[in-house]
Design a protein that fits this description.
With 439 residues, this protein is an alpha/beta fold. Helices cover 23% and strands 28% of the residues. The protein has an eight-stranded mixed sheet, with helices on both faces. Strands 1-5-6-4-3-2 form a six-stranded mixed sheet, with no helix packed on it. It has a six-stranded mixed sheet with strand order 9-8-10-11-12-13, covered by helices on one side.
C-alpha cells in the first residue's frame, strides 16, 4: 500500500469548504469527497503540523446522501467540490454553514430565517474562465480548470455546470486551438452568455494570422458561437470579425429591463438565481417613489435599475470606471436616467467626507465582493445612517463580521437573512440579509 494511503477513518463532520473531517491519533484530517458518517480510505495530499489535507480513494461505507457525480472529471478538476452531495443535502449543508457562521463569527442571529432558494444544478453557469495550455510533450492543447490543490490543468472534454452547448465543444476546441499558429500563446478563454449568444473571448499574447482567423470563423459558423479576442485591457476586447455585433444584452423581463454588457464585465454567473435574487432584494428593500436609495458596489446596474422602476431616486456607486460607464449607458437605454445616476468611488478606501458628499439616503443596498464592506460599514454615523440596509454577500464570514458591527455598534437589528444556491456543487454560499434601525 502507498505510504500515504492510510487505514480507514470515520468522517464525523463537514467543514465550510465541503470537506469531510476525521480524527486519527492527534491529527485532524480534511478529506475531499467524504460525507458525514462515511468510512473512507484516503490519500494525503498536504501536511501541516497536526493537520492533514487528503482525498478519499475508497468509500468503505457510503452515506445515504452520496450520489454519482455529474462530471467524469470530478475529483480531479478543482472547479467543483460537492458533486458527491445529493442536491438537497448541498442546500441543507450551506444553510447550516451560513447560520453557524453568523452565530460563531458575528455573534448575531436573524429574527427570521428566509427559506433557501435553489435552481438548476447543472448547465447553470453562463460565465466562466478556462485556462488554456499547449502541452508540447503531448502536442495537445488543454482547456479547463486547474486540478484540485494543483497548478496542473485538468485534461477535460466536458463540464456539466456550463451549458451543454459549450461543454460539448471543449474537446473540439482543443483540436481547433491545436491548429492555430499561436497555439502556445493563448493562456485563457473567458466564456460569457446571455442564453442566446455564446461568446468565447480568447486571450492572445500574439496576433492571429489570417489563416487562424479563417479557421476560427469556420468553427464559429458551424457551431453557432462567437470568438472574440483580448490582447490587454477592456479596450482591446473585440470580435474576430468587424461585422459581428459588439452590443450584448441580457434581459430582466420581470422589470422590463435590458442590460448592455461586455463579455468580460462582471455579471452574475447564474442567470436563473440572479432573477430570483433581484426579486427578493426588492421585496426586502421595498423601494418607494421619491425615496433616495444608494446601491453600493453597483456594477453595471443589476440592482440599481430595478430599484429605479419603483420611482426611487437611485445612486449607483462603483469603483470600476468601465462598469460606471456601463451603468450610465444602461440607465439611458432603459429611459431611467432621470431617476438614476452612477458615481465612481473606491469603496475600500473611501473616507467619511467622501460619503458625506453623497448626501443622506433612506435606504442602502450593498453587494460587495468576497472581502465584504467593512470600510463602508465602519463609516456609518447618525448623520448618514439609512433606516434600512439590504446586504447581499458571497462570503458568509465577511457578512457575519460586518453584521456584528451593524448590530452592536451602529444601531441595527438583523431582521431577516437567507441563502441562495447561486453556485451548485461548490462550497460558495450566496446570501441576502436585511438590517433595520432599532426603533
Amino acid at each position: 500500500m502507498d505510504a500515504d494511503l492510510l487505514d480507514s477513518i470515520l468522517i464525523t463532520s463537514i467543514d465550510h469548504e465541503g470537506r469531510g473531517i476525521g480524527h486519527q491519533n492527534d491529527k485532524t484530517l480534511f478529506i475531499d469527497n467524504a460525507l458525514i458518517n462515511e468510512t473512507v480510505r484516503f490519500k494525503v495530499l498536504k501536511k501541516k503540523k497536526n493537520i492533514l489535507f487528503a482525498r478519499s480513494e475508497e468509500i468503505i461505507k457510503a452515506s445515504s446522501q452520496r450520489v454519482t457525480p455529474i462530471c467524469t472529471s470530478y475529483g480531479v478538476c478543482g472547479g467543483c467540490s460537492m458533486q458527491h452531495f445529493e442536491p438537497s443535502s448541498q442546500l441543507a449543508y450551506k444553510q447550516r454553514a451560513f447560520e453557524e457562521t453568523l452565530r460563531h463569527v458575528g455573534n448575531v442571529r436573524p429574527d427570521v430565517i428566509l427559506s433557501p432558494i435553489s435552481g438548476p444544478s447543472h448547465s447553470y453557469r453562463h460565465k466562466a474562465r478556462f485556462r488554456v495550455k499547449f502541452v508540447e510533450k503531448k502536442q495537445k492543447v488543454l482547456i479547463g480548470f486547474n486540478e484540485k490543490q494543483s497548478h496542473f490543468l485538468t485534461d477535460m472534454t466536458a463540464c456539466s455546470v456550463i451549458p451543454s452547448k459549450i461543454s460539448n465543444l471543449l474537446g473540439p476546441l482543443q483540436l481547433l486551438f491545436g491548429q492555430l499558429s499561436i497555439k502556445d500563446q493563448i493562456p485563457q478563454i473567458e466564456y460569457a452568455s446571455n442564453q442566446t449568444r455564446h461568446i468565447l473571448v480568447i486571450r492572445i499574447l500574439k496576433e492571429l494570422s489570417d489563416t487562424d482567423i479563417r479557421t476560427l470563423q469556420l468553427f464559429q459558423e458551424a457551431n453557432d458561437i462567437e470568438f472574440w479576442t483580448q490582447t490587454k485591457g477592456y479596450e482591446t476586447i473585440q470580435p474576430i470579425l468587424e461585422v459581428m455585433s459588439r452590443e450584448i444584452i441580457y434581459s430582466n423581463t420581470e422589470f422590463g429591463l435590458d442590460f448592455f454588457f461586455q463579455p468580460t464585465s462582471f455579471t452574475q454567473i447564474n442567470p436563473f438565481i440572479n432573477l430570483i435574487l433581484i426579486r427578493r432584494a426588492m421585496a426586502l428593500l421595498q423601494p418607494k417613489k421619491g425615496e433616495v436609495i444608494f446601491d453600493f458596489f453597483s456594477g453595471l446596474g443589476n440592482f440599481t435599475l430595478p430599484i429605479a422602476t419603483f420611482g426611487s431616486k437611485v445612486l449607483g456607486i462603483e469603483g470600476d470606471s468601465y462598469l460606471v460607464e456601463s451603468g450610465i449607458k444602461n440607465a439611458s437605454k432603459n429611459n431611467l436616467d432621470k431617476n438614476v445616476n452612477f458615481k465612481k468611488l473606491d469603496l475600500f478606501n473611501t473616507k467619511k467626507d467622501d460619503l458625506k458628499l453623497l448626501g443622506k439616503a433612506d435606504k442602502w443596498l450593498i453587494d460587495p465582493p468576497r472581502d465584504g464592506a467593512l470600510n463602508l460599514i465602519n463609516l456609518i454615523s447618525d448623520d448618514i445612517q439609512p433606516k434600512k440596509i439590504v446586504y447581499i454577500s458571497c462570503n458568509p464570514a465577511t457578512l457575519a463580521r460586518d453584521a456584528h458591527i451593524l448590530v452592536t455598534e451602529k444601531g441595527y437589528r438583523l431582521s431577516k437573512a437567507g441563502i441562495l444556491n447561486m453556485f451548485p456543487h461548490t462550497s460558495h454560499v450566496e446570501s441576502i440579509a436585511l438590517f433595520e434601525i432599532n426603533e
